[in-house]
Structure formats: C-alpha cells, structure tokens
Amino acid sequence: MHDSDKLAVVLMSGGMDSALCTAIAIQDGYEIAALHLNYGQRTEKRELQAFDELCDFYFIKKKLVVNVEHLVLIGQSSLTDKNIEVEKADLERKEIPSSYVPFRNGNILSIAASWAETLKAAAIYIGAMQLDSSGYPDCRREFFDAFQNAINTGTKPETNIRIITPIINFTKKDIVLQGKNLNVPFHLTWSCYQNEDKACGVCDSCALRLRGFGEAGIEDPLPYIKNSEYS
Amino acid sequence: MHDSDKLAVVLMSGGMDSALCTAIAIQDGYEIAALHLNYGQRTEKRELQAFDELCDFYFIKKKLVVNVEHLVLIGQSSLTDKNIEVEKADLERKEIPSSYVPFRNGNILSIAASWAETLKAAAIYIGAMQLDSSGYPDCRREFFDAFQNAINTGTKPETNIRIITPIINFTKKDIVLQGKNLNVPFHLTWSCYQNEDKACGVCDSCALRLRGFGEAGIEDPLPYIKNSEYS
Q1: How many CA atoms lie within 13 A of A91 on its CB side?
Q2: pLDDT digit string (tens) for B173-202?
C-alpha cells in the first residue's frame, strides 16, 4: 500500500497523546513502526498493555519495546524513584515538578533516530505538548528544532528523518476533541502515573487528562478511584 | 579539593582515546564521574575490565555502567550483530563502514546529559575524533555543536553543561604522544573490536591504534595475535 519511504517511527507511550499521534500519522499516509519505552516508571506494565492494545487496534506489526535502564539508574525523579512521593497536581505551578526525568526526550529521540535510520524511515512522530507539559524544558518547540539539527548532522548523508510534533500546540481539550474526530480509542489508553488498575485521578497526568475531557464536554471512558476536582 | 561545580561526566569506553580524555579532564581541574556503556559490542566484557582498571588507576569513585539494550535490539551493524562479519580495515575507504551504529553518539550524549543534569555536573568529556572516525557522521564537530544546542534547550534553565571534545582534531599519533606526556596507562586500555584476550591487529580499531603507535615511534604495550601492516 505504502512506499517504503513513507514509514514513520511513532513514539507510543500508551497515553492519549501518543494514541492521537498514531491516528494522525496514519492519516498522513505513513506506515507505522511503533516504539515503546519502559523507563522505570511506576505504571510500566499498564502502559505496555495500552501500547499493545493500541497496536492491535491499528494493525501495527512493526513494534519495538526498549528498556531504558539508565533512566532508572540515574533516578532522581518521582517517576523512577519509588522513595519520592508523587506530587499532588498543581496546574498553576510554574516550577519544574519532581516527576521530571532529566533530558528524557533527548534520550527518547536518540533511540527513535537510531531505529528510524536503521529502518530508513522518513519521520519520527512524538506527542509532546508544550502548553500542558508542566514546564519540562525538553517538550518545547525550540528543543525539537535543536534536536532536528542534531539528527540532520549526526546521521548518514542519505538519511533524511523529520521530527514531527503534530500536537505540540494542542491543549488536552484539543487532544480529546481531535481524538474524537479521528475515532481514537481512548478507552485503550492509560495516563495515570500512580496506579495500574484504576486511575488515581489526582496525579499531574490524571488531572490534565480529566481537565481535558471536562473542557471538551466528553466523558473519559477510563475507570477512576475518585473524581478529582478537574473532572 | 574540587568545587561541586567542577564535576565532569567523562565517557570511558576503556579505549586509549577516552583514557586520554580522562587525563585531560583531571588536568583541567575536574572531579570525574565515569560513564561506561555496554551496547552489545563483541568485546563488551574486556572493555568493562579496562574501564574498571582505568577508574582504579585514577582513583575515580563516581562510576555508572549502563546497558544500552536498544542498540543491541536495533542491531544492523557488525559491532552489535554477530551475523555480520567485521570488515578488515581499509583506512583509505571513504564510505561509512559496517561497524556504524546509527546515531550512537546521540544516544551516548543523551545518557551523559541525563546523568550530568542529575549530578549538577558542569561538563561532559567525550573522546570523539573527526579525523580518524572512519566517516561516522556523529563524530564530526558540527554534530557536537548541534547537540550542545539540544542540551542547552532541553535541560533546566539553571543547568549549564558543556560538551568538551578535547581530542576532536587529534590523530591517533597525537593521542599516543599526548598520552605519553600525561602518563596515560595505555597498558590498561583496550581497543580491539574483535577479540578479548589478544588484540586481533586487523580490525579498524586495531589498525588505527597500531598506526598511531607506529607513527609516534612508540611500542604499543598490548599483546597482539599478529602485527598488522600498520604496526
């Protein structure tokens, strides 16, 4: 169906952002190579389940799951160190939250670039959002522009990989609305940083997700322990 | 002895280039945090031994060894895939050799940047050489400049990490001569891509090393199976 130069590596965490990215990449005409990273987050298994179910839903056969051990070893953040308590969401907070994993998107894009060059893929889709990114420096437009230049200079002359950030200026409300338009299976996605059975409803990621569904006027199909103030 | 802002992450493969980088970083006044990566190369164990012995030699206590599993999984190259034969050296060759691991230095620098930001280190030393780099695109000056910009934009505002490539314009001859000046323990280093007991003398890495010692007029202290034409 597709040309081999229409292959795209899509970063699929299993969350709603990357699920929408997948739908957009397919709409853009790409065959998908799905890349999932375990980086020692609390909800690793649940996210992997969401990844597999999303791949099945979209009939994706090219899959790669990578254990990014060093982000576990390097630790420091509440996402990777179970000794640090996950902070309760504060969406007005300006400083960088403790769930920050240093230079995470640099590591993620490097892995994606290695795989993309091997596969001769033409693009990397990543569902970063600078508005709702809790101030992570590696979610900003200028970081992706800089990394694009690093890939251009650090790969073979004949390699031509474009980083595509289709939802970088979206809010979570936009994600929900656009996902609804493209029939994204939100019931298969997972966002909670804290739990694996029922979403906690209070961590940053749950709060952002619930606020997005709330503002879109659509009900989140996931089960929650309790509704947070943002739902 | 040193200020905490004088900490440097040094990438230490266990080869002579990174051993010289360590000596230069110490001379520059840095306390060293030594980072070693296993990326599925044939001689992984021997390189780790060299890393440990070099750390002991330089009294380095901060050490991190990371298994970069994805470069094994992604495979493709002769360094990581035992089904591809290691090419015999051809130092006049212009095209990129099969030992190329796609975007390897992008991955390496991302890991180093994550650790450096966690440690609040001020620098990353990497022993890349663009002259003797067999045409790897991610060993060139312009790649490191681009990646510096990616680190600047992708880390916290208060983080300030400099990529330092002290031997980027060195030849292997320069490495040997400067290493001799700084008393680098070349007998503890390992370069061969092929063997772990006696160096093969014929792979790219052995050939470059032997040519460097030959041009410097100094004998390589390592044991070889046979002397290549470059010794």
Answers
A1: 18
A2: 999 999 999 999 999 999 998 888 899 999
Distance (Å, whole) CA A84 – CA A97 = 12
Query: What's the rounded Cα separation, in Å, for the pair A101 and A110?
Result: 15
- What is the phi-psi region of residue A75: left when phi exceeds 0, alpha when psi lies from -120 to 50, beta otherwise? left
Select from B72, B84, B103 the residue whose CB has the most chain A CBs within 10 Å, as the one to mutate to test that interface. B103
- Closest C-alpha to B157, from A143, A230, A221: A143
What gap in Å lies between CA A72 and CA A41, rounded to an integer? 8
Give the minimum alpha-carbon distance from A81 to chain B in angstroms, rounded to a whole number.
Answer: 13
Interface confidence, given as ipTM, is 0.85
Question: DSSP readout, A134-170?
Answer: TT-GGGSHHHHHHHHHHHHHHS-TT---EEE-TTTT-
State CA A94 to chain mean position distance. Answer: 21
Task: Looking at the complex, report in whole angstroms how far the Cα of residue A94 sits from the nearest Cα belonging to chain B.
Answer: 13
Best of B81, B153, B159, B161 to mutate (most A CBs within 10 Å, chain A): B153
Mean residue pLDDT of chain A comes to: 86
Mean pLDDT of B71-84: 56
> By the 8 A CB rule, do A133 and A144 touch?
no
pLDDT in tens, A9-46: 999 999 999 999 999 999 999 999 999 998 777 888 99
Give A77→chain B minimum CA distance, Å. 9
| pTM over cut 0.80 | yes
Say which amino acid occupies A114: S
Tokens of B214: 């030959």
Locate A109 and state its tokens.
């894009």
- What's the CA gap between A106 and A137, in Å, rounded? 11
